[in-house]
Amino acid sequence: QTIQWLETHTSFFDRRFSDNILRMRRHNDNTPDDRLKEGWLKGFAKEQRNRIAAVFDDRDKVVAMWRRNGLTCFQVAPGAF
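Structure (tokenized):
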């Protein structure tokens, strides 16, 4: 459903490259979002990680995690939840 929505409503999404730009948690995965996303980041090869220009997030603790890991993160909304 997410991939279909992105293809319909955005101009940047290309299914052929979705494994490289789209990460989603598995069904019933309740890992805290900061730990989940940090795990994804650490799973990237160094070359992949170096190609990340910026990250967009809303949750304070996730924004802090991205920044702690040296990435530019734009906080898109208040996220004290």
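The mean pLDDT is 89. The CA atoms of residues 23 and 40 lie 8 Å apart.
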